TrEMBL record:
The lineage of its organism: Bacteria, Pseudomonadati, Pseudomonadota, Alphaproteobacteria, Hyphomicrobiales. It comes from the Bacteria. It comes from Starkeya nomas. This is Integral membrane protein TerC family protein. The keyword Protein biosynthesis does not apply. It is found in: Membrane. The chain crosses the membrane at residues 6-34, 46-66, 135-156, 163-182, 202-220. Its main location: membrane. It is a multi-pass membrane protein. Signal peptide: none annotated.
Length: 233
């Protein structure tokens, strides 16, 4: 498929559209991970995070066909995603001002990278299917998607700043995705059967969201109490 063929541009539009549609969760992660950064570092964090996310999509697409067939992959991924969701709702710990900004920036970028690695399974499968092995399509389509992901993250970040309760809603969304991912693992499908998994998929997703909220709320209270006690002493 050459650049001059209409099918190339049609496939490119499909890849961009798929990436934007399936990157809603990733935009949430970018916004939540960068929300506590100083104003001067937020845009940098968002750009670096989105760039890392898209770059990892390109690499991940090359190995996804092998990885998706491995048992336990989605289970491990779902647990990692739940950890990330809980970590995002915990209050920031006090750090020395001179180091905090730099450390927080790269911590935010790292969080975005790990979350994107976990959450991009379905995304890269769809992109690989459309591209049909054409790496030019994959790279160009994902690079064009960067501004769209950043725009989505910027919008969400503005809402998070005005309505902090949305941070918890975003964490619950990630927990929901983790629950769905857990149930789609090869081993779970083998053990329970496709019909059972299909019937309880939404229940598992709801349980994942509830676990994130419960664990996040408990740890948040403990960290806040510890911080208050430290300041009091």
């Amino acid at each position: 498929m050459s650049y001059l063929e209409p099918l190339f541009w049609l496939a490119l539009l499909k890849i961009i559209w798929i990436n934007v549609l399936l990157s809603g969760d990733n935009a949430v992660v970018i916004a939540m991970a960068c929300r506590s950064l100083p104003d001067r570092l937020r845009r940098t964090g968002m750009i670096l995070g989105a760039g890392v996310a898209v770059g990892m999509r390109v690499v991940f697409t090359a190995i996804i066909a092998v990885l998706l067939g491995l048992p336990w992959l989605r289970i491990v991924g779902s647990l990692a995603l739940m950890y990330i969701a809980v970590d995002l709702v915990l209050p920031e710990e006090a750090e020395d001002g001179g180091v905090a900004a730099h450390d927080s920036l790269w911590r935010a970028v790292g969080t975005i990278a790990v979350a994107d690695l976990v959450m991009s399974l379905d995304n890269v499968v769809a992109i690989a299917a459309v591209a049909d092995g054409n790496w030019a399509l994959i790279v160009i389509g994902l690079v064009i998607s960067i501004p769209m992901i950043i725009a989505g993250a910027a919008l969400i970040m503005g809402l998070l700043s005005r309505f902090p309760v949305l941070v918890w809603a975003g964490a619950a969304l990630l927990g929901w995705v983790a629950g769905e991912m857990f149930m789609s693992d090869v081993k779970v499908l083998e053990y329970l059967g496709e019909s059972v998994v299909h019937n309880v998929e939404y229940v598992a997703a709801a349980v994942g969201a509830a676990l994130v909220l419960a664990i996040g709320w408990t740890l948040s209270r403990r960290r806040s109490a510890h911080s208050t006690g430290s300041h009091g002493s």
